[in-house]
Amino acid sequence: MQRWKQVLGAQSASIALLALVGAGLLPVAIVPAAIAQRPSTTAAQTNAAIAQEILRLVNIERQRVNAPPLVLNDKLTAAAQRHAQDMATSRRMSHTGSDGSTMRSRIDATQYNWSTIGENVAMGQPTAAAVIAAWMNSPGHRQNMLNPAFTELGVGYAIGANRPYWAQVFARPR
User: How far apart are CA 58 and CA 33, in angstroms?
Assistant: First the structure.
């Protein structure tokens, strides 16, 4: 197994071992307990946890400047998730979707009745903390995150070509 880890890397070696076990070529007993007992997690559960962490980190930053905390909104999250998935699928980061959609058209498609909106996108940051740090170090993204006019947030997260894609949608309802 050590040799496989050196050649394939730990994650690839784990996948290869599971494939061999599944094919009946290796006994189950050699599968490391950490792999065999790993709980399954759905993409929806992962994205909900990521959205909660992004919200928590954004609200920490907002609290530092006395801006009111944001709350998650399902419609805004749907718009953000659609865009994050589109970026991951098309393997490009842009505020314009591969179908020509805009932030406004994606939000309007959810029937969210807004008075003001904003969007942050990013690609490549491996964690919620890393993407928040990147956005906080960018004046325009920072302005969106700290804007006291915004009251609600949607978060999107998707993986494409082993690279994370992120989207935040900010709004205030009418």
Answer: 36
